Amino acid sequence: MSNTPIIEMENVSIRYGRGPEVLRNINLSLQRGSFHYLTGKSGAGKTSLLSMMYLAQKPSKGSVSVFGNNVNFANRNALAMFRRRIGVVFQDFRLLEHSSAFDNVALPLRVCGMDEREIRKRVTELLKWVEIDRSTSAITSTLSGGEKQRVAIARAVINRPDVLLADEPTGNVDNDIAPKLMKLFVELNKLGTTVVIATHNENLIKEFRYPTIHLKNHSLSIINPEDGDEYAEI
Amino acid sequence: MLRSNTMRHRELPLSADSSNLFLKVMISIAVFLFAVTLAGVLSINSMLVNWNSSILGSLTVQIIPVNGVDKLKAKNETIVQEQRAVALLEAMPETQKVTPLTDAQLEQLLKPWLGDDVDLSNLPMPRLIDVKLKKGAEINFMTLAEKLATVAPQASLDNHKLWLNKLINFAGGLKMLALSILVLVIGITSGAIFYSTQTSLGLHKDIIEILHLLGAKDTYIAQQYAAKTALLGFWGGIVGVLFAIPTIFVIAHLAQQIEGGIINEAHLSWGGWTAILCLPLFSMLVAMQTAYYTVKRTLEKMM
Fold it and tell me: Is residue A127 a part of any domain in this protein?
């Protein structure tokens, strides 16, 4: 159903061990093709919220649904199939350090069992686009922080995901390449990908104006660009 | 060069695991022990088949003559015991035909040793009973000897067969022991693979988490472990068999030095050698399956 939210959270709370709740009674509904920033101070729960979206953890309370399926009741194979439709750019990149840039970007396609010729074609093209084409065979651990970030972004978008979740995706790249990467996210969004970007980059938020999911005091609010002063304070 | 689609990419750097050498040595030792024990089991089996065929089918009961001053009375007592023994043997479901040998037949048997001129009627002659057994019938000689002793105290079973029966029981026990060792070897090796795989899963937890987050199913990860462990199992198996073959030859050579021809009946058939040469494939399969199911079982506990 086209009206079904692509990600939906109902009364979601999360806590680690016996610690305090990091997020409390969160309700969130992301429609297919939407674009949101995710903001909040450090420790506000941005990474926790994202990790529930990319199915790395289940909520302590409440329910999370992706693509219309409640993940609380999904089996392991179903979770794997949902994850294939979600591209993630991690703040710490989470690349396979012993593998080449090429193999890292090819990974989501190999996991799906795609033909190796097709993989080579797609990966080479994308690496060229993110300007890593001269070091495709270099072991990832030898790449600079900016290069790693671009490899991580390429890996997240290589299989045209339905949802793209990015945690500070432009944090380590040069100022001239950050807008280029944002334009890639915008283009993917125009093609129907739902995008959520966790960021502290005010310039980015002001230049590319989209609604913001703001986390404060363990709770969530949605702020639209039209909200004037409130939007400017993010 | 383009990679073939059939070529599997292994994201997990399992070939660098420090436990690989331990596992390979462990599997080599296990396969060596397995091969030598298997050779023993198969040899014992062939020996048992030979021995069984020699004691199956017939048996002889001897009634030792009763001693007494009155020769006639003693002879009659011997004949009475013979008749009781015949009755007992005929009542057994395993017997097909029970034939007590006549005096003439006994004399015929003794002639080659005593000559034609000796009057056998004056000698205390033992009575012999030839017993034909039904096809496939198995008799416990110890029990039969006990039963015969109750009806005919002078009766004795063919000593060689009794002794052989004891040997068969001993060899059967030995065979069961060897089979238990085989099961134990498989169990210990599987246990070592299980714990080694679990350790490796812990070492590569971060990579596994990345693979999961990118949509890899448990089977994708389990297959990488299975492929690596299968290789270790195969090469470990090759090394084990290479050491086992000369060992088996040495043991066989030493066994042939034993006089009496009993151990000589133990030999390894072509089928046995084929089974031993196939052990690397067997160890490969055991290692592969163990690693695969260990990974699947362990990953099921993760989200």
Answer: yes
